[in-house]
Amino acid sequence: MNDQGRQQRVVVTRPEGQQQRLMGLLVEAGYQPLHQPALVIEPITVDDTMQRTLMELDGYHAVFFASVNAARLALSAMADLWPQWPVGVHWLAVGRATAAELESWHLPATVPQQGFNTEAVLALPCLQQLVEKQILICRGDSGRELLAQTLQSRGARVDALAFYRRKAASPVLIPAETDWVMITSVQGWQAIGGSVPPCCGVVAAGERVADVVRAEHSGDVSVAASAHDEDMLSALVAVATKD
């Protein structure tokens, strides 16, 4: 590896259609990005039960979107039922990219100022006093239960709707000469980790993902502040500069 990471091969594992911006940033920084999705996003059909819940949006204190995929799919379903968005609802996003999706639907997004994870969301002022309040979580069919459990412990009634499922991509092809692989979720690592060359470095989105990677991988692990494109790139540049 050279001092500035020039010509290093970096595999981006975001799902198809969500990799372009990060790959562009890598090219600008002098890296050679390759795209190998770890997961495939499969939308879940909105059934009658889900529709009944969505028709009661105006009764919720807050609606939380756990990812860009959750926001895109959930808001599309909501828009079919709500020509005008209900007022008095807190629209919560896990991070900046998810907030941008909400804003594209003309919704005022509330997002943590830093952290961009469940713990940061739980620290939002609107989620502190929740006795007898209703919260809707829009998410995928798997993920952490910490948010729902903590909100319930604060007195909220929590409903969760899954709008997509994540499946391991196949086939997975990571060239042996790859220098770094970017991993943004535990499930992504579980899907692709067995194909990562032992000497390859991993940029992991946050300590929780990094801990899982370290337990199974002998190569270097660099921890990004979050899964955002800029944070993933910064973590890569920081470790490459040290080499």
Automatic annotation (TrEMBL):
Pathway: Porphyrin-containing compound metabolism; protoporphyrin-IX biosynthesis; coproporphyrinogen-III from 5-aminolevulinate: step 3/4. It is an enzyme of class 4 (lyase). Keywords: Lyase, Porphyrin biosynthesis. Residues 22-233 form the Tetrapyrrole biosynthesis uroporphyrinogen III synthase domain. One of its GO terms (biological process) is uroporphyrinogen III biosynthetic process. The keyword DNA repair does not apply. The keyword Lyase applies. SUPFAM superfamilies: HemD-like. Its EC number is 4.2.1.75. InterPro entries: 4pyrrol_syn_uPrphyn_synt_sf (IPR036108), 4pyrrol_synth_uPrphyn_synth (IPR003754), UROS/Hem4 (IPR039793). Transmembrane segments: none annotated. GO terms for molecular function: uroporphyrinogen-III synthase activity. It catalyses: hydroxymethylbilane = uroporphyrinogen III + H2O. Catalyzes cyclization of the linear tetrapyrrole, hydroxymethylbilane, to the macrocyclic uroporphyrinogen III. Belongs to the uroporphyrinogen-III synthase family. This is Uroporphyrinogen-III synthase. It comes from Alcanivorax borkumensis (strain ATCC 700651 / DSM 11573 / NCIMB 13689 / SK2). The lineage of its organism: Bacteria, Pseudomonadati, Pseudomonadota, Gammaproteobacteria, Oceanospirillales.
